[in-house]
Design a protein that fits this description.
Helix content: 55-70%
Structural class: alpha+beta
Largest sheet: 4 strands, antiparallel
Strand content: 5-15%
Shape: elongated
Number of strands: 4
Mean pLDDT: 82
Length: 173
């Protein structure tokens, strides 16, 4: 019994340290890769608790390796926009000039009702008020209205490219 207690405390300390090293985010703010890493770490951490005969080191080493890999991947994503887009995705415009873009909704596999729900959360009662509605890589909806688009200079390169593509498509159509 004492062995299980000690193993539990050690696993708790190691997993807590690994998660702290990887960064502070709530589950809703996590990128897909971060959520997957968290699930894998929790699974690996549970193995020595389920089987007391399993060497503790057989779980501690993989947990630290996974944390190290996550750190390397996050550094790569900081340095390379292409890597970030490949791993996390990029923002996708689903509303342009007050109209939903059905092809983008199909690409994301979300319904108009899902977008209406997200709009209501942003206290937007009518999609026609929205200049651009953007689904961010973490799944949240960002809204740019005519009023705030001129004041909002904060746009990632990915979003600028997405808006440029939409503008080109509008000029062709």
């Amino acid at each position: 019994m004492l062995t299980i207690l000690i193993r539990t405390v050690l696993i708790y300390i190691i997993v807590t340290a690994a998660v702290r090293i990887m960064g502070k985010r709530q589950v809703s703010d996590m990128q897909t890769s971060e959520l997957v890493i968290t699930l894998i770490i929790s699974e690996v951490a549970s193995l020595p608790l389920e089987n007391a005969e399993r060497p503790l080191l057989n779980s501690l080493v993989p947990i630290m390796m996974i944390a190290a890999i996550e750190l390397l991947v996050s550094l790569l994503m900081m340095k390379s926009r292409k890597a970030r887009s490949l791993i996390c995705g990029h923002p996708i415009v689903v509303i342009k000039d007050g109209k939903m873009i059905d092809s983008q909704l199909r690409l994301l596999r979300i319904s108009r009702e899902d977008v209406y729900s997200l709009l209501r959360e942003k206290e937007i009662g009518d999609e026609s008020e929205v200049r651009y509605g953007i689904i961010e890589p973490n799944g949240t909806l960002s809204i740019l209205t005519a009023d705030n688009i001129s004041k909002n200079g904060i746009q990632s390169e990915d979003l600028k490219e997405e808006l440029a593509k939409l503008k080109e498509e509008g000029d062709e159509g």
